[in-house]
Backbone:
């Protein structure tokens, strides 16, 4: 079996732009209004990935724990901002609880995977830690965005039920518990669906990358199993933490539902 990565020249990389041209042609043909966003997204992809390539090369060469930790915290903050921006049912931008939820779930699961399961030397090897934590964050941010948006959406849709329970003496947690359950379920559904079809319908990115890099398929499969299970755990913890932080914000100090749940950024409020 051949080993090593097949290099891509600058000319070959430029040829890949043709793929975006196809997507742009579809957008123009159907008048989707996505041509400008597609072009800008392509430019940003080239610039951002080229920049991060130089950054990672420096970080890998230094391999210092404080620098790796700083990058992880920064990644969590960026992921938190990106995730709450995808919650149109939420009237405000709860970046702080999203940040702490992502940080806690990512560090807990990531540390367990890197320190106990993979155990590189040193355990904080940047080549292992940053990709692992990045995969956790990339999936967790989508999960918490779905769960937070569903929490507010469910509370809005079930206002009568929640207020009825409150009127009969239920605590805010007892009244909102059904909405919390649906919110966490919504956040976890995508990763559960992925677990069901991985290897049958799709070959995930990490496994594909390792195979393209010349790794033995069996070894790549082991890594991918670890990755899928760690993502499931991180998404579950992240959703539970964020919903736990957020449900109390739906109520006034007196235990009544706030009027703000009836407003959303989608409505321009």
Residues:
């Amino acid at each position: 079996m051949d080993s090593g990565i097949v290099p891509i020249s600058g000319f070959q990389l430029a040829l890949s732009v043709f793929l975006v041209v196809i997507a742009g042609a579809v957008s123009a043909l159907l008048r989707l209004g996505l041509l400008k966003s597609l072009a800008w997204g392509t430019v940003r992809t080239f610039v951002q990935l080229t920049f991060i390539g130089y950054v990672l090369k420096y970080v890998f060469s230094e391999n210092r724990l404080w620098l790796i930790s700083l990058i992880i915290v920064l990644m969590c903050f960026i992921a938190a901002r990106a995730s709450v921006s995808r919650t149109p049912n939420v009237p405000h931008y709860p970046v702080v609880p999203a940040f702490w939820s992502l940080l806690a779930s990512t560090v807990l699961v990531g540390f367990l995977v890197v320190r106990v399961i993979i155990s590189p030397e040193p355990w904080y090897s940047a080549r292992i830690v940053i990709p692992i934590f990045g995969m956790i964050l990339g999936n967790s941010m989508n999960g918490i965005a779905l769960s937070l948006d569903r929490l507010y959406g469910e509370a809005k849709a079930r206002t009568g039920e929640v207020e009825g329970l409150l009127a009969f003496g239920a605590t805010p947690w007892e009244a909102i518990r059904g909405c919390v359950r649906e919110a966490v379920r919504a956040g976890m559904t995508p990763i559960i669906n992925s677990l069901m079809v991985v290897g049958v319908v799709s070959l995930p990115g990490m496994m594909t990358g390792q195979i393209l890099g010349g790794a033995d398929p069996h070894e790549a499969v082991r890594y991918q199993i670890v990755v899928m299970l760690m993502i499931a755990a991180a998404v579950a913890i992240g959703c539970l933490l964020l919903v736990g932080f957020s449900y109390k914000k739906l109520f006034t100090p007196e235990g009544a539902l706030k009027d703000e749940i009836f407003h959303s950024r989608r409505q321009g409020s």
About this structure: The radius of gyration is 22 Å. DSSP finds ten helices and no strands in the chain. Residues 9-62 form one domain.
